Model the fold of this input.
Amino acid sequence: MSMPAYYTTKDKIWHYAFRVICYSIFFFLLAPILIMIPLSFNAQPFFTFTREMLTLNPEGFSLRWYEDFLSSASWRRSIQNSFIIGAAATVISTSLGTLAALGLSRSEMPYKGLIMGLLISPMIVPLIISAAGMFFFFSSINIAGTYLGVILAHAALGVPFVVITVTATLVGFDHSLTRAAANLGASPTRTFFKITMPLILPGVISGALFAFITSFDEIVVVLFVAGVEQRTIPREMWSGIREDISPTILAVATILVLISIALLTVVELLRRRGERLRGLSPQ
Amino acid sequence: MAMADATQDDVQVGNTTDKRGRLVTSDGTPLRRALERSMRRRKLTAFMLVAPLLAFILIFFAFPIAQMMWRSVDNPQVVDALPRTLDALEDWDGTGMPGEPVFAALHADMMDDLDRPRREQKIGPLGIRLNYELSAARGAISRTARQVPNFEAPFADAFADAHRLWGQPELWRVIKREGRPLTPAYYIAALDREYDEAGSIVKRPENRQIYVNLFGRTLALSVAITFMTFLLGFPIAYYLSILPMRYANLLMIAVLLPFWTSLLVRTSAWIVLLQQQGVLNTLFVNIGLVSDDNRLDLIYNQTGTIIAMTHILLPFMVLPLYSVMRTIPPSYMRAAKSLGATPSTAFRRVYFPQTLPGIGAGGVLVFIISIGYYITPALVGGQSGRMISNEIARHIQQSLNWGLAAALGSMLLVGVLLLYWLFNRLVGTDSLKFG
Done:
């Protein structure tokens, strides 16, 4: 945005002031997250920059919090738990969710609005209420404090993201392709795997990513439904923040930020690929 | 039906009609029925695709929540523990003391309970239940239950000797009132009300009013957070919308990265920044803004909750606003200006009204999320930044008053669903997108 030549002084001041305001807000959004990265290399157990760090003295920096993180048995188990629970929950919500999205995007689907509302509700209902309900129910069927319980709970929370993402992909889907396949003699299963699936794959993958992230980042349900054995990374961070607040959580946070940057990139690439495949011009 | 048949009888379609002149398929079934059957089959196929997920969500999500809401009115404790007493109380009018037959029935009920296996005993839960209505009731019940085998008639005196509460009509009124399988008592408590001696519902004394204030504070904090996200989100959404796509996508990372970063990471970031020995306070001290022994309380209070939650929810405001602003043609503003409007008039009367759907969508979204938020207030809210979710969690995990937790939760849930319905009316779920 270059400035038009006819701008008056007042316009010019406003032009720059507005940009200053906007960049301060972007700063507000990013700074808290980015500031943790240098702080996680602090050699001292403080949450602030020491004099050595500010003067870039190498003695002010260390990897001790990363060492702490990787050598602690409970942190290691939490990493393992997060991936096991996240992966299992993602498989359940993605497979069931994709099937359901295929059904929901058919015009003859009865009670579409009602069912869609119900399937999206895990995203709307406050987590504390879902967690409380699941806590009581899972205790009564003896799966509270088990991996199965946490996985089922997280699968339910991931469902709306898969359903919404895959139905959105199916909006641009050309149904004459499946009809053509059927016309040429392909069975419905074959049509699904050879025609439908490759076309909606970007949507399915990004839905799965959302479901995984939901589980990976989820804490409220874990607090209520999981036992000590199933502690995930956020659960371990929760204890870290509440009980002994040590810079180890900054090291964990830095690693998580790097993971989210990687995921963000993947989703963006998928979105572009999806648009290209469906013949929509990239924005 | 008959009329439709009659009109079809008039149609002559060569050899694809049957004897009565109706359209048929090649194997002789009436066309209407064949079409209906095929439609039914297609509906069934579509439904079968959805059925597994629907069953999953109903069993593991909807049913647990319904079951939890049921707890807010479920009231089995008194009915289970004191069936005979309740029968005997049937004729008692609630004034004065109940007669000897009632005490005899109570004795019999308590003796029955001693015969039950330990895990099925009903007197313990009864004490807990009655204690919600009348403090000290639990003590009265448990102390009496230990002595009951030694009681001899007349029982009225024996009970009154064991604990003074048995000699007062108050406890009996509570037993009679709560001797029903369903109760509004948890909702009455959740609204800071209680029963007075005459049995009508009145406000609790000032110092025991908690929940209405807490709901009020939750609403106020949510409004404040929604307003803050609007205040910060509107300029940057606008700025992103006027930038060329390439730069906008690049700057969008600043919005999307927080969105994709773990909630606990963002919350701990604010703890790092805002605490007394944290980055901001140290910076203020070093530049001489505040003195060292006067560091600001920026966290573990309402300020902390508002700052951290504004940061966490800002992307939910920016994304819908941005997608609406992108669709507003810049020519409208230019037209307004060329027709003589000042920039501020053009903005106020032409641009701003067109962004209202985005403001509505973002606003309701942020408001719905913040009203039920648990983690951030629990970690950075301290006492004054607590919200209703924290109180629900406290009742489930610590005070174990699950009925009250369920009543508070049901009220919160109904509020959120109403807001969601409003959101749907305003924008529709189709516009929900992530990333």
The CA atoms of residues 202 and 269 of chain A lie 9 Å apart. Residues 73-104 of chain A form the longest helix (32 residues). Chain A touches chain B through 93 residues (CB under 8 Å). Chain A has a mean pLDDT of 88.
